[in-house]
């Protein structure tokens, strides 16, 4: 899968103060995009520069499947593909 590359700053969403300069961590949720779809992925593993996780939401309109990806699928990506990072 080739994700859309995100240019510019990332958006962070947190409930408590955290170090925004720290890299993504297991348990965080990353928002990625492909074509005109958004995918929220809960990060479950990190191996070097590659992150992987489970798709928890597809949008912007509610969907079970988009761009060949279904909710519950495990996908891999790099941090350059993250648009928004929701800290655990």
Q: What is the chain-wise order of helices and strands? A: EEEEEEEE
Low-confidence stretches: none
* Cα Rg: 12 Å
Instruction: Give the overall shape.
Output: globular
Characterize the largest beta sheet: strand count, sense, and whether it forms a barrel. Answer: 6 strands, mixed
Strands in their spatial order, largest beta sheet: 1-8-2-3-4-7
Number of helices: 0
Assembly context of the chains: single chain
- What is the number of independent domains? 1
Which range does the strand content fall in? over 45%
Mean pLDDT value: 86
CATH architecture: Roll
What is the structural class? mainly beta
- Output the CATH class name: Mainly Beta
CATH topology: SH3 type barrels
**Spatial separation of the terminal alpha carbons:** 25 Å
Approximate helicity band: under 10%
> Would you count the extended β strands for me?
8
Explain this structure:
The chain has no helices and eight strands. The chain has about 90 residues and is mostly beta strands. It has a single domain, classed as SH3 type barrels (Roll). The radius of gyration is 12 Å and the shape is globular. The protein starts with 10 loop residues before the first strand and ends with a strand.
